[in-house]
Design brief:
The chain is an alpha+beta fold. It folds into four domains: 13-259 and 320-345, P1 Nuclease; 356-439, no CATH class; 451-488, no CATH class; 491-643, Mannose-Binding Protein A, Chain A (Roll). 27% of the residues lie in helices and 19% in strands. The protein contains 18 helices and 25 strands. Strands 1-2-3-4 form a four-stranded antiparallel β-sheet. The protein starts with a helix and ends with a strand.
Length: 643
């Protein structure tokens, strides 16, 4: 019998272990917030919207079986219950580790089954949790001891048990249907299909820590903006032949079109994903912010914003538009799953696909729930016998799972002797098998030299698919690329404009003090010297006009050329003797421009830190660079245009 002291020590040790690792947990975590039946959050509310959308369909009106949810309110409660408890919140969300599927390679995280596999894997859902998987990464090692302790109550097995699609249909279980809807909704979260592990870390930790776990901005945004469910407008309920096709459709749509927190930063060099393709994105400016747009189902959607501490970020504007698209798709495909569920359960004795695997004609075959032989699950080699446990090797000379190869439109394993084994990856109806991978069909052959386009100030050839080819016309220094051809620049040195390099300046600025926003609006609305494409110059462009004050000339000691993350005191603010420059009125600028030259606005963000809103300004009279708040009205503006 254990002593009371020993029992108290064990409880204290477990409490300390819990405190040590709770920040590592996928706190409610690796998916949309489930909430509770009394306080439903993202998952149950998406489920309710899917049920409502299904009940508006012609299929619902024509199929009496679907009225079961309306006629028996307990059915909807069962579905909601399943949606919440697929995450197993009572065991610190251990089932959630099986809710990831990489949209390109189909893998899960940390060696856990992918959500595609979890959807059908009865043995995994009824089996023990493989907590040794937490030893695969250094950051997840503490989770093994924690979950071993948590799962003692469940004898090491997953809570909730079998809620596969096969169980949902064969047992006509509405609760299991709710579990399935949860998996589809998780596949509408980019982090879940780009295998971006995440947990309850604050934003500043995500920026400066090397850990693989962080809070997911999209899930947190959705949780905090549940009233915006009204912005979801489902329009179609696609019909699918299998639940796997529905899940695959959600996975591919999300992964190909949207970034997650950790994969958005890889946009500029270390991105292992082929989509979204940077070359297909359109840049648009919104004030001082630059957004990257992607065409999704005929609409231009912002999927990232240019950041300050990271190359790209997902801000509130991006997340809101992402929610409208992905939330709507989750509701639509959730309704498709409900429709498929009722079709599958209509028969008194439905035959469930892929119910078991048995030996047949020397190989392992899938058998449906009616005992009908279906497709091959595993080919047994010449060195293997087939029994109900699988393919058993006779001659160990051939190493199993040596490599993968396409066979009959699917990706199969082959052993080191070149003999076919089981399927490694199932390709959908919309995929081809190429080079041992399931890929989208190749686009038609692109016709070379189909068109000409302006790029990098020259004229380039473009093929019929929109890909840039070789140079077609090299524009001279006094020419610009306009309407896909080289044309002589129209901006010249005269009483109104001054040309330096590729820039055309207002010779005399507008002699009016204004705020930064007023300056931006002024230049954008300016019609001057027969041009209407004026803008506020960057701080680097303003420095090209400096003469006689070395610290702030291009190449001078002042380090300010663009963003806010520089030490701008000292070399930028030492200044030169006031009004003693070589230019007009003693300005420290070229004599080719005239007029007032005090503080002059730039369009470059500046300030003492990333959270202080201001822009850089250059004072040509005193020879200093500093920053001004957006609503500060002292500076003037000298507009510029690209020539």
């Amino acid at each position: 019998m254990k002593s009371a002291t020993s029992s108290r020590f064990k409880k204290k040790a477990l409490s300390l272990l819990f405190a040590a690792v709770t920040t590592l947990l996928p706190s409610s975590a690796s998916s949309h917030e489930p909430g509770t039946e009394q306080n439903p959050l993202t998952h149950p509310q998406l489920t309710s919207r899917s049920v409502e959308f299904y009940q508006q369909s012609d299929d619902y009106n024509q199929d009496p079986a679907g009225h079961e949810i309306k006629n028996n309110p307990q059915r909807l409660k069962d579905i909601i219950h399943g949606t919440i408890f697929e995450d197993s919140p009572q065991a610190h969300f251990i089932r959630a580790y099986n809710h990831f599927t990489d949209f390109e390679n189909a893998n899960g995280i940390l060696g856990f089954p992918s959500s595609r596999e979890w959807l059908h894997d009865k043995d995994a859902q009824l089996g023990d949790v493989p907590t040794n998987n937490f030893l695969n990464q250094s950051w997840s090692i503490p989770l093994k001891g924690f979950y071993d302790s948590v799962l003692e109550e469940y004898q090491g097995a997953y809570p909730e048990g079998d809620h596969t699609w096969e169980h949902a249909v064969s047992q006509q279980s509405f609760e299991s249907l709710g579990h399935i809807l949860h998996l589809i909704q998780d596949a509408s979260v980019p982090a879940h299909v780009r295998n971006d592990a995440h947990a309850g870390f604050p934003e500043w930790v995500r920026l400066f820590s090397t850990t693989d776990l962080h809070d997911d901005s999209y899930e947190i945004w959705a949780k905090n903006n549940l009233p915006l469910l009204s912005e979801l407008h489902p329009a179609q309920m696609p019909q699918y032949q299998s639940i796997t096709d529905i899940l695959n459709a959600m996975i591919e749509f999300t992964g190909k079109n949207f970034f997650s927190d950790d994969s958005v930063g890889s946009f500029f060099g270390n991105n292992s994903y082929t989509s979204p393709d940077p070359d297909t994105l359109t840049q648009r400016r919104d004030g001082l912010r630059v957004y990257y747009y992607r065409q999704i189902e005929g609409e231009e959607i912002p999927i990232a914003r240019r950041g300050y501490l990271r190359p790209l970020v997902l801000d509130d504007t991006v997340l809101r538009e992402q929610w409208k698209v992905l939330g709507t798709k989750a509701v639509e495909l959730g309704a498709s799953a409900i429709q498929l569920y009722f079709k599958a359960t209509e028969s008194a004795d439905p035959c469930i696909d892929h119910a078991t695997i048995q030996c047949h004609d020397g190989d392992m075959y899938w058998i449906d729930s009616c005992g009908n032989v279906q497709d091959v699950a595993q080919y047994c080699t010449d060195n293997e016998d087939c029994d109900n446990e699988g393919c058993v090797g006779i001659n160990p000379a051939c190493d199993t799972h040596a490599y993968q190869e396409c066979n009959q439109g699917q990706v199969y394993w082959k052993n080191s002797c070149g003999e076919l084994e089981e399927i490694a990856e199932r390709c959908t109806a919309n995929q081809d098998c190429e080079n041992a991978r399931c890929v989208a069909p190749q686009p038609p052959q692109c016709q070379s030299h189909a068109d000409r386009i302006c790029s990098n100030s020259d004229v380039y050839w473009q093929d019929s698919c929109g890909n840039l080819e070789g140079i077609a016309q090299d524009c001279l220094e006094n020419e610009s690329c306009t309407d896909n051809s080289c044309v002589r620049r129209s901006c010249i040195n005269n009483q109104e404009t001054y040309v330096e390099g590729n820039l055309c300046w207002q010779k005399v600025p507008t002699n009016q003090q204004m705020t930064s926003r007023q300056a931006i609006q002024h230049c954008e609305n300016l019609a001057y010297a027969n041009f209407s494409d004026w803008r506020v110059p960057t701080i680097r462009e303003l420095r090209t006009l400096v003469r006689g004050c070395p610290d702030i000339e291009i190449g001078g000691a002042c380090p300010v050329y663009s963003g806010p993350d520089v030490d701008w005191n000292g070399d930028c603010t030492n200044g030169c003797p006031e009004a003693s420059g070589p230019g007009d009125n003693g300005c420290y600028m070229t004599i080719s421009v005239q007029g007032p030259c005090g503080g002059t606005w730039s369009s470059s963000q500046g300030g003492g830190g990333p959270f202080e809103v201001g822009v850089w300004a250059l004072n040509y009279q005193r020879g200093i660079i500093t920053y001004s708040l957006l609503n500060y009205q002292n500076p003037i503006v000298r507009c510029v245009r690209d020539d």
